[in-house]
Amino acid sequence: MRFRLAAALVALPLAAAAQPVRVTIVNGTTQGPASADLVTLYRLGQGMEPVDQIESPDAQVTLEAPDEGSAAGGIRPFLLQATYRGVNYNAPVRLTPGETTEAAIVVYDPFAEWNEPEIGLSTWRALYRRLPGEQDALRVDHIFVVENRTEPPRTFIHDDETLRFRLPPEGTLLELPTVSSTGETGMPVPQSSFPVGDEGDYAIRSAFKPGETEIVLSYAVAYEGERYEARLIAPRASPEVLLLASPLDIDLELPPGALPGWEVLGPDQEARLTAARKFDIAAGEAVGMIFSGGTPPPAAAGAPGGVPGGRPLPGLVAPSADERSAVGTIGRLPDPTIASKWALALLMAAALGFGLLHRAFGGGGRS
User: Fold this and answer.
1) Separation CA 61–CA 100 (nearest Å)
2) Of 361, 362, 352, 355, whose CA–CA distance to 125 is shortest?
3) Could you check whether 16-107 and 119-361 share the same CATH topology?
């Protein structure tokens, strides 16, 4: 059944022509044809504007996109999205002016049991940093890299949760944490999170498609007296965890009772980081570290200071009692800084590869 999106089309000039887009849906698990639950064509610009949609299509279906012509600055790029068994799959589309554009999109059968080594957490990285103008705060960014190695390829999705994480106590949080994921498109997608299990535990239901998916969790915590103790729980078993700190003169100290196997790595001028590392983290293992000291970078001229007297940092949002108690509030609000946080995630992903760590910290990696 076709649902022509009238709101999008009414705004177009009456003379605008329709550009046919013939879509072939392929099941990447069986390598055969697939019939999706829903296929939508989006026009990309300032956001994603749906222009045509068909429910329960066959394996091959034709959608129509508006051709705005040269008067509108040419034909914009489009995004094709197929919803298959509850998971959205995306593929970019560029129209061929005056012709039927051929496009294909690949979907995968789902599975719901986390079964290593078919799917697992390949690494967990966390960066704690002091920023200019934020004297009494630490910015924290976690990257969880999930690798789906299923053969034939399938998508992991579970009705209850797909990944959980531990948040700091509410009294130390200075803003509502945000969660985003990136997969085949290379762009971060905000994720909703919800409380589960013990107090402070939250989870997401993001689907993990074949290949790698990066989950980025970001928040800020109070750094009163230039000291903060991180108390984390490993969401899944992982070959390694890396805790990093910036600037270089932040001290890292293992808390009392920490499990053996940690290496506290000295400051490195080239990497501009100090770090602690542990291999072979078990699911549910406690991960703790005490951060102290560190010279905060100077604020720009005229910029406000940090949080003297307990006042919220500029640009941060202190959660209200209602927000803290609302189910699913954390991570559901749009994040206006997601682009800069994603740039940080990409930088960390590039800088923390094995080769750079080997050079920066003198080896110790696994072959």
Assistant:
1) 12
2) 352
3) yes
Measure Cα distances from 178 to 85, 93, 140, 167, 230 in Å. Answer: 26, 30, 11, 11, 18
Beta-carbon contacts of 5 under 8 Å, excluding residues fewer than 6 positions away, are 50, 51, 52, 53
- DSSP label at 15? T
Can you give the pTM of this predicted structure?
0.78
User: ∠ at Cα 110 (105, 116), nearest 5°?
Assistant: 120
CA geometry: angle 21, 24, 30, nearest 5 deg? 165
d(CA 251, CA 223): 13
- The answer to whether 167 and 130 are in contact (CB under 8 A) is no
* Percentage, residues of the chain above pLDDT 90: 47
**CATH of region 119-361, choose from 4.10.410, 1.20.58, 3.40.50, 2.60.40:** 2.60.40
Residue 131 · residue 294 · CB < 8 Å? no
Q: Is 123 helix (H, G, I), strand (E, B) or coil?
A: strand
Helices (H), 205-337: 321-325
- Cβ–Cβ < 8 Å for 24, 59: yes
Domain spanning 16-107: CATH superfamily: Carboxypeptidase-like, regulatory domain (2.60.40.1120)
Please report where in the chains the tokens 């003169």 appear, as a residue. Answer: 249
Structure confidence by residue, pLDDT tens digits, 9-67: 444 443 456 889 999 999 999 999 999 999 999 988 777 889 999 998 889 999 998 87
- Please report which confidence band the pLDDT of residue 300 belongs to, taking 50, 70 and 90 as the band edges: low
pLDDT at 141 over 80: yes
Q: In this structure, what are the phi and psi dihedrals at residue 276, rounded to the nearest 5 degrees? A: -130, 145
CA 192, distance to chain mean position in Å, is 11
pLDDT in tens, 224-248: 999 999 999 999 999 999 998 988 8
d(CA 14, CA 69): 12
Q: How confident is the model at residue 183 (pLDDT cuts 50, 70, 90)?
A: confident
Strand partners, 27: 32, 107
